[in-house]
Every structure is written in structure tokens, then in C-alpha cells.
Amino acid sequence: MKHTNLDSKLETLANTALVSSLTNIQRGIEREALRIQPSGKIAKTSHPAGVGHPLTHNSITTDFSESLLEFITPVSTSAEQTLSQLRDLQKYTLANMGDEMLWPMSMPCFIEEQDDIVLAQFGESNIGKMKTLYREGLKNRYGSMMQAIAGVHFNMSFPDSFWDALKASEQDSSPLQEFISNKYLGLIRNFKRELWLISFLFGASPALCRSFLQGKQSDLPFKESGKGTLYLDKGTALRLGDLGYTNSAQSSLKVMYNSLPEYVKGLQTAIRCRSDLYENIDDYQAESPKQLNKNILQIENEFYSPIRPKRNANPQETPTQALARGGIEYIEIRALDVNPFSETGISLEQIRFLDVFLTYCLLKDSPEMDWNEQQISDQNLQNVISTGRDTTTHLQQQGVQISIETWAKNIFSDLAKIASLFDSAHGDRVYSKTIAKLAAWVDNPEDTFSGQIVASLVGQDTDSAEQALVLAQQYKQSHLQSDYQYYQESELNEQVTRSFLDEQAICQADKKSLKAFLQDYFENA
């Protein structure tokens, strides 16, 4: 094999402080999960009062609907600690949910009609009402069913010591934050190029309940199982496809990742540009608003992307304002399905793979990516979504057709080198073992998450909902019977009490009408 630029870079970095810095990578996880009734249908009850106020609780909140919970871990340098935090938050919530359970899949449970998906309520404060109105806008723009899909978001940042070592090794003279932002953007471009591999390995939504389509026809070659399950025989992640968490109306947005000003400008244009598609939906200036505004994006969070550059924002600061002020601080991976084989929704093995894969995306050369290449990358992803476990499927790489098998093996060859760096940093071979195990899935696609799910559906001629309900019951029992691993129950109780007090303080501080509050918000956005 020829000596690549990545090989040369790794030789340089292996003798620097960069290796030891890999133990200080910071991570955080956001896991979404639908609350379900014992029957397996979506819960229509309010957010459990016993877990705190969804507006102000830092770790337990809701996403689109009242029934779509979101668990958010604090930032940690220990992957094991992060999973312990996530497990404890779910245990505490399940203990305060009566007989309800957490749906362990990305694609929703049986939902009879969209009105069963109740919008999340965040209280009577202006910011709380804004959050609910934003969700009403999503409902009126795209329908509620798409918003009932759950995922796992993985947040990651490299430590200062890593950046110092990398900058020194590359003899780069640019300001440090500019260097960091540019490197993160390079990571994002490479991630988009090879995102399809995430779908191949960890896609866990090859099937859905027929109710999800709400009578709509699909061109996908679905097969049927059980009483109402549709699945793709070689599919991986419907959640990431055209039926999933996507927005074709945003296809006109050419948000680019070649420089931070370019990215910021693309998003800020979208939140200021009116859309003919939404012109007839009443916005916040009407007596009975149905969306925040009539722009292409109501707010920046409406932009659907499998990866985002992020910076913690100051009060009253939008995400892009924060990026423009201070540069990229961390990245958010939004491409993960809920792992149905893990009671937390994500496994330690996945975290270790992401550590290696994202570091590979960062260190590998990352040429600029034009709009045409972005579209090619998206088409590669769609091909893997529909037929990815047929590894003879061809993708397009730099204008050349290449099979999934060949490309994946080339990537894993490089990932093995990065894993060795992590092994050196941690003093064991756990990272190399993880990469070797997942590399074997290329030759054995039935071992992937989607492969296991489809094999079970076909082997038992059952519904995916039946499988999910059994897992939901098992995981609830396991959580409730286990001890807390990171938090004390008293600490979690204090967070609940504090969240209600904080929400009251926000309400009392409001001095404007909602209309005036939103007017100020959009003038400053």
C-alpha cells in the first residue's frame, strides 16, 4: 500500500503530546425517546412532572412533542462516565413515568393519526411559548409524523493540548481559534463524504410501521412482515432517507462548509429570507399564529444536517452569532439512529468508533467541497440507506465508481492506524479491537444493526413493534432494578426542584408581550 499523507502525518504526531491528549477528548450525548403506553402506542400524557420542568431542566427535557423525551448528559472526558450519566437519567425518568416505557427505536411506534402527537409545552414564559410555537411551525410545514422520529446526538471536542500539538506539528502561523475552526470544518467535509459508513454500521431503521406513511405511497421496494411492518431487505437507516428526518424544502439552501463566514452567511440568509411555501401560514404577528415566521427557516435549528459546527451561546445569542463571535468550539453528530440493542440507546463500542472516525476525519486531508460534491455525498448516503447491506452496491468517489466493500475496507485500513494512537494514549488495545470487530461487518453485513433487525423480522415473520415492545419492557425492568451509577437520587431530586424555581423566575422576569418579545428576537437575530 502506498504511503499516504495521513501516514506521514501520523508518523509526526505519534511522537508528540497529541497522543496523550486523546484521553481528554470531551463528549456529551443527547438521546431522544418516545414515551409509550404499555400497549406500545404513543403516550398522550403530559411531560412527567416528577422529572422537572422541560424548559429549565439541564438534563431531562422534551424535543418536538410532549411524548418525545430528550436526555442530555453533561460534558465528560470519560466515555464510561457519560454512559453512566445517561443510564441514570433514564432510570430516574422511568421511575417517574408510571407504567409508561421508552420506545427503543428511531422510527415511531404505532400512531393512529398525527393529532396523537401533542406539541411539547414549555410553560407560560415568552421563551417557553416561543419554543412551542416553533414546534407548531414544524408541524404545519412538514407534518408531525416526521418529528416523532428519535435519534442520538453525539457532541465532541478536542482538548487545547491536542490543538497546540497539531498546530505546532503543521507549523501553522494562523491565530489558534481560526486554525481550530478550519480544522473542524475539514472534519465536517470528510464526515459528509463518508457519512454513509455510519449508516452502514449503525443504521437501525430498516423497517417502519405502516402507520408512519399515513396512507402515502412510497417508491421504495418495501417488503412486509407481520401485520403491518414494512422493511427494506438490504436497507439500513430510513431515518436518514427521504421518509425520515429530512426537509426537501431546504434543498435550495446551499449551506457550505469551506469557511466559517461562508457557513454562517448561508444559515443567516435562510433565517431572513421569506419562503413562498409558508406564506399562507399565519406567523407570530397574527392573533392565532401557526409558525414563528414565514422565512425558509424559522430559526437556525430548523436546518436539518447530519453534522453541525457548534459553540456555546451567550444569553440572547443565536447559534451562528456565537460561531461568528468565537469560532467553532465543538461538533454535533446527528446521524445516529437509536441503538435498539443498548438500553441507553448508544453503546460504548459506538463511542469508541466515533472517537476514531472523527479523529480520522480531522487528520485526513480535506479539500474544499463544492455544492455538486455535497449532492454526490448525499446520493451515496441514499444508496446505502436503501441497499447498503448489498456491499457490491457502487458509490461515487472523486468521479469514480467504487463498491461499498472496497471503500469501507480502505477506510478501515486508515481507522486501524488512528485506533493505534488511541491505544497508546489509553494503555490498552480496546480501540483497535473495536475497529477490527466493526471492520469484519463489511464481510458480514448481517452483523450490522440493520442486518440483525431484518434477520429477526424475516426469521419470525413478526412486527418490528412487537420486538421493540419486548425490548422496552426489558430495559425498563433493568433500569429500575439497577443502582444509580453516577448521580445520587437526592441530587436528581434537587435538580427537579430547581428547574421549577428557575422556570418561575423566567416567567416573573417577562415584561413584554409575546409579540414584542419575538419582534426583538428577530430584529437581533
UniProtKB/TrEMBL annotation:
<comment type="pathway">
    <text>Sulfur metabolism; glutathione biosynthesis; glutathione from L-cysteine and L-glutamate: step 1/2.</text>
</comment>
<dbReference type="InterPro" id="IPR006334">
    <property type="entry name" value="Glut_cys_ligase"/>
</dbReference>
<dbReference type="GO" id="GO:0046872">
    <property type="term" value="F:metal ion binding"/>
</dbReference>
<dbReference type="GO" id="GO:0005524">
    <property type="term" value="F:ATP binding"/>
</dbReference>
<dbReference type="GO" id="GO:0004357">
    <property type="term" value="F:glutamate-cysteine ligase activity"/>
</dbReference>
<keyword id="KW-0317">Glutathione biosynthesis</keyword>
<keyword id="KW-0436">Ligase</keyword>
<feature type="domain" description="Glutamate--cysteine ligase">
    <location>
        <begin position="11"/>
        <end position="384"/>
    </location>
</feature>
<dbReference type="InterPro" id="IPR014746">
    <property type="entry name" value="Gln_synth/guanido_kin_cat_dom"/>
</dbReference>
<keyword id="KW-0067">ATP-binding</keyword>
<protein>
    <recommendedName>
        <fullName>Glutamate--cysteine ligase</fullName>
        <ecNumber>6.3.2.2</ecNumber>
    </recommendedName>
</protein>
<dbReference type="Pfam" id="PF04262">
    <property type="entry name" value="Glu_cys_ligase"/>
</dbReference>
<dbReference type="GO" id="GO:0006750">
    <property type="term" value="P:glutathione biosynthetic process"/>
</dbReference>
<keyword id="KW-0547">Nucleotide-binding</keyword>
<dbReference type="GO" id="GO:0005829">
    <property type="term" value="C:cytosol"/>
</dbReference>
<comment type="similarity">
    <text>Belongs to the glutamate--cysteine ligase type 1 family. Type 1 subfamily.</text>
</comment>
<dbReference type="InterPro" id="IPR007370">
    <property type="entry name" value="Glu_cys_ligase"/>
</dbReference>
